[in-house]
Amino acid sequence: MMPEHTIALERVNTPPAQTWNYLRANDISLMVPSRSRKGDVYFALPRLFGGVECGMGPQVTTWIESQSTDAQYVEVPAGQIRTEPIVASMDTGVMVRAGATATIVVCQDTKDAISQESAPLTSASLVRIIAERNAHVRVFEFVTATDVNQHVESVGIVAGKDAHIEVRQFFLGTQTSAAGLVCALDGNRSRLDLTCRYLARDTDTLDINHVVRQRGRLTRSEVHESGVLDGKAKKSLRATIDLIHGSSGSEGTELETVLMLSDDVTNKTMPVILCDEDDVAGNHGASIGTVAPEQIQYLRDRGLTHEEAEQLYVRALFDEALICAPNSAARDAVLRRATEVLGATVANDLIEGLGLSSLEEG
Amino acid sequence: MSERTRTRTQVADVDRSLYDFTYSEEGYERYDDGLTPDIVRAISEKKDEPAWMLEMRLKALDTYHAKEMAPNWGPSIAGLDMDHISTYVSPRTKQAKDWDDVPDDIKNTFERLGIPEAERESLAGVGAQYDSEIVYHNMRDEVAKEGVVYTTIEDALHDPEWEPVVRKYFGTLIPPADHKFAALHYAVWSGGSFVYVPAGVTVEYPLQSYFRLNAEGAGQFEHTLIIVEEGADLHFIEGCSAPKYYEANLHAGAVELFVKDKARLRYSTIENWSKNMYNLNTKRARVGADAQMEWVSGSFGSHVSYLYPTTILQGDRSNCEFSGITFAGATQDLDTGCKVILNGAETTASVDTKSISKDGGCNTFRSSIVVGRHAANARASVSCQSLMLDDISRSDTIPAMDVRNATASVGHEATIGRISDDTILYLMSRGCSESEARTMVVGGFANPVSKELPLEYAVEMNNLIKLEMEGAIG
Amino acid sequence: MQDQLLRVSGLSAGTEDKPILQDVDLTVGAGQTHVLMGPNGAGKSTLGHVVMGDPTYIVSAGSIVFDGKDITEDSADKRSLAGIFLSYQAPVEVPGVPLYSYLRTITQKRPELKMTARKFRSRVGDIADQLDMNSSFLTRELNVGFSGGEKKKIEMLQLLLLQPKLAILDETDSGLDVDALSVVSRGIEAYRQDCDGALLIITHNTRILERLSVDRTHVMVQGRMVAEGPASLIDEIDAHGFEQFEHTGGEQQ
User: How do residues A285-329 score in pLDDT, each as one tens digit?
Assistant: First the structure.
């Protein structure tokens, strides 16, 4: 019998098509704290968001909804170019109306972390986004905190006609992180560009589930994951491109590059293409291993030792995260983590280098 | 497409009746449908088996009843009702060493499939199974003189020299508890082959076993056990076919391959079960140091397939190459692929598969590459290409990789697409009909696999492709 | 002599199965421009890589002295920090590492280039302008998905940023298009102007040398130095090819 204030999220973060269970690559099971909300009245998002498929699945959606003290609904009016980022809370719904532009930051907020004695201290984010036709949405996700044990992040995006979705994810900290994202390219010519960078070290567990549902005609998806594994870290990535009947003329590409720096890491990768349409193209690529000898040699020729060459990849993750961070909260969060991983000197150098922002965009 | 163009295609050369003919099973020994300890005992008794085998069968039967199919993946097998499958059907004939001693209807079957002819021309030995029993088994004298053994498991069990060998290996690589249909296999297995190649012996020509399931509503459960001793070399070919019925048939064979240090085994399969077949076959190889395992696998038939030949690269520097092609047409749901487990240091694996889906057929490529902690400098690459010939078919690619050694390198690439209009136009502008152009492109797509096959089988495979492509356009 | 920046003496080297360089001597003075020419497969690129410390090649005899110090046994990173730079014919793609992170990391290894990150950014920006490079390159992964010309620009950017004492430009078989050719020429020019460093240009494309004042020309055939002479030797080779050297058996002109 499980204590009341603990919930088991069994086999969540699953991809649409699964494989042999003994590989333990299909899902993750998590024990999460659950504070009683009996008698509370709290805001829920408009019903319409209930239809948005989220990456970690309905179990997680229900749990986060029940734990969130409030639901945040943000609407960006048609045609508006909103420059100020929308900061997601634990349960957020964003409606980006036709032709509008919005930036959404999902930065792990540990102040809201749920604590119950018998379960790990857990932070969570649930973000659902509806992008109407011609909308342009940029989503930035940062998971960097080490003052919680566990983080759960579930994102669902629906893209209308000609909508363009850009997602940049940085999973750089938190001992156990599980993150799922579904992007439904429902509208014709809608497009997703997703890049995901991760670092897992020590005894970290990182579990990622990416799903692109390509329903509209002439849709495009470009999904690129890459990261560094060190120590005894365990990482699973499931990435699914679902080319659904009727999505003629669509193309989906997914590529992962995994750098393993230690023999004690475990890397699981499951790149899935589902297809029931003939006039489409789906591509997957994965490359798993250590730094190639010719790459090491190139870096040594420019003055780095073997270890320095390997650490360059770690630094690069933080550089990129800082360049991407759209607000000070995200930047501070990345910097804090950079200081832990790379030391204060390097972290200061990173942030100082950002001072000249004129170089970042070409 | 006009009549005129259609008649120009080479498709017309192929005779569909090649596989689709039946003979009466009147007078055959057929056990009751369903699965009971009594049936298992009857099979064992008929084979006059050692006690350990019966014990293994009965235990496996319990396991079969206890196990469930995984609910979260794989094609449906709801149409398979074990209460309506006879697990043992035997023609009333003794195993022959001469085709003239094989009853006419059975002999005709294999004649039409071209087996005796192939035996004369290019094989070192042939085994032919009809329903549950081997009806013909023979091997060239010079091969036998080298100490090569090619017989049935039943005969090996009756031979005091080989019974301990069978006992040592049988069911060790694929344990009965592996999955539900492995358990079923061990409960009711019948027929198949036992091959032993002594150390250092190279068998110049391939050995072939052909499995024909003639009976309706029946199952075939042959067991193949091959031991290739140190430094030895063998090419083994397996062919399967069955006529079409409306009642479900079941094939749940098991293939256990032991490839010792420095040995090489090539295992080729052309599977063309009829489209009422549930093909739940299990194949596994264990490979020693510096040894090589090569798989060539063509899957054309079956209603539902679960087929993932597994290679365990246990010895250092061992190598596995897998080439496979799967063609799924109307009513077919074929879940095929392979598994490779790299345990030894400096092991290498390369997987190259193709799949073609058409007329509503459903193809799933499923694979797993597992690199163990100790597999220093292991290398694996997987390449998987899928061709969609229309928009009512389906093609899924579900590979998984589990890597636990930092010095290993694993690469994977998969593509799904269709034949480009430009290619068809180009070929048509040079005088091919559309169907010829498509057949040509599909043939070219399959070529990397068919070129791995001995000539006669490559021809057979190309014929199958042409046959399947017939009427692909309209 | 102090002005001998690089002195290769009696160097023999090759791969495990095959000797390539035989008894090679080469001296480059500080600030000088040398050209190394020779037919395909003569071992020119190998010499560049051996001087850089590529572990593919094993040195069986001889020594390499750089800036007064014997570096024959040093690893490539040590040689790089000492001031040797080898530009690659085909720069290696390094996915996962944005150009900016890379450049910052390799500069920080050199005390003489110590500067604040802010200053560094502006310095990189200046060089990028000089090479007519779009600064959006900086957030892209190192050499990944760049065209041949763009990769050359990135090599030149590193050359100008690191200001090595000796730059070895390996342009043997790169079949440079007009674009890349002008990038390399511009890079060389800027390097000569700003850093006053020495150059060893490995090529058989004499167009690259048109605007340069060359101090010495070396000719290598079958792993041996067969000729050495002034800049005019280049024109001679241009006119008559390498046949004249192929039977000289290592005699100097």
Answer: 899 998 888 999 999 999 999 999 999 999 999 999 998 999 999
- How many Cα atoms are found within 13 Å in the side-chain-facing hemisphere of A97? 9
User: Is B411 in Cβ contact with A287 (below 8 Å)?
Assistant: yes
B35 with B87, same domain: the answer is: yes
Same domain, B227 and B289: yes
B353 belongs to a structural domain:
no
Query: Which of A277, A280, A307 best tests the B interface by mutation, with the highest count of B CBs <10 A?
Result: A277
Question: Of the candidates A226, A301, A354, which has its C-beta nearest C96's C-beta?
Answer: A226
Coil vs helix vs strand at B31 = coil
Q: Do chains B and C touch (3 or more CB pairs under 8 A)?
A: no
Residue C140 has pLDDT above 50, yes or no: yes
pLDDT tens per residue across span A25-46: 999 999 999 887 766 767 789 9
d(CA A232, CA A225): 20
The domain ranges of chain A are 6-290, 293-356
Which of B307, B342, B361 is the last residue in one of the domains?
B307
B414 close contact with A: CB closer than 8 A: yes
User: Is A320 close to C101, i.e. CB distance below 8 A?
Assistant: yes
Nearest to C86 among A301, A308, A319 (CB): A301
Looking at A225-229, A321-325, A344-348, B63-67, which range is the least confident one? A344-348
Q: Is B368 domain-assigned? A: no
Nearest to C121 among A227, A294, A353 (CB): A353
Q: Which of B368, B395, B397 sits opposite A20 (nearest CB)?
A: B368
Q: Residue A208 — very low, low, confident or very high, per pLDDT cuts 50/70/90? A: very high
* Tokens (6 digits) for A173: 């900290």
Into which CATH architecture does domain C4-245 fall? Answer: 3-Layer(aba) Sandwich (3.40)
Mean pLDDT of B376-382: 95
What pLDDT sits at residue C173?
Answer: 53
Among candidate residues B261, B280, B307, the one where a domain is terminated: B307
Q: What is the mean pLDDT of residues A155-178?
A: 97
Q: How many distinct structural domains can be found in chain B?
A: 2
* Same domain flag for B223 and B234: yes
- d(CA B318, nearest CA chain A) in Å: 19
Domain of B17?
1-30+420-474
| Cβ contact, residue pair A319, C101, below 8 Å | yes
Q: B367 to chain A: nearest residue by CA?
A: A19
Same domain assignment for residues B82 and B214: yes
Same domain membership, residue B258 and residue B200: yes
C136 CA to chain A: closest CA distance, Å? Answer: 4
pTM (global) more than 0.90? no
Contact at CB, A278 and B389, closer than 8 angstroms: yes
Q: Does A344 touch chain C (CB under 8 A)?
A: no
B264 lies in a domain?
yes
Do B42 and B26 belong to one domain? no
Q: How far is A66 from chain C (nearest CA, A)?
A: 39
| Residue-wise pLDDT tens digits, B284-323 | 999 999 999 999 999 988 999 999 999 999 999 999 999 9
Asked if B187 and B65 sit in the same domain, the reply is: yes
Q: What is the mean pLDDT of chain B?
A: 88
- Kindly tell me if the per-residue pLDDT of A24 is higher than 50: yes
CB contact residues (below 8 A), chain A span 252-281, against chain C? 257, 259
| Average pLDDT of every residue of chain A | 92
Do residues B375 and B344 make contact, with C-beta atoms less than 8 angstroms apart? Answer: yes
User: For the ranges A232-236, A313-317, B30-34, B175-179, which has the lowest average pLDDT?
Assistant: B30-34
B147 within a domain of the structure (yes/no): yes
Q: What percent of chain A has pLDDT over 70?
A: 96
- Which of A260, A324, A359 is best to mutate for the C interface (most C CBs within 10 A)? A359
B contacts of A269 (beta carbons < 8 Å): 400-401, 403, 412
Structure tokens at B194: 């036992």
Q: Is the CB of B409 less than 8 angstroms away from the CB of A274?
A: no
Tell whether B145 and B1 lie within a shared domain: no
